[in-house]
């Protein structure tokens, strides 16, 4: 049997901030730490599913200088991920399937019937039944036999 990877894509959340333009933190020490972390990490741009981390640190619950009791809990962060990740993942998959259909000259509506495997990678969070399951369902891949994921 021959396997062929036809589609590879990635997508970033909609809210974008250049690290060098990020809001200053609450103290001179925090700003020095931020400058060092920015320089050594190589991160130039940050992306997020909520615009709240882009606002001034004195009003953002996502600001690094916030105390733990003022910051979003892990459950709150995972709820955001569970809400937003399927939207982003499905958008990326649909866009790439449309690109493939156009370049191959095939009917994009028939592609789900030929997809046998779906590989989803995320570095942010998790939930059950899972991001891969949600994307497969949205793309119509959860038919008998279900796509391998």
General description of the model:
By secondary structure, the protein is mainly alpha-helical. The protein contains 3 helices and 2 strands; from the N terminus they run E-H-E-H-H. The protein folds into 2 domains: 14-66, no CATH class; 73-149, no CATH class. The mean pLDDT is 79.
Helix-strand layout with pairing:
Layout: E1 15-18, H1 28-41, E2 45-48, H2 74-104, H3 131-139
Antiparallel strand pairs: 1-2
Helix pairs in contact: 2-3
What attributes characterize this protein structure?
mainly alpha; 5% strand; 2 domains; 149 residues
- Mean pLDDT rating: 79
Helix content: 25-40%
Please state the overall shape, judged from the principal axes of the Cα atoms: elongated
Strand order of the largest sheet: 1-2
Concise account of the structure shown:
This protein is mostly helical and 149 residues long.
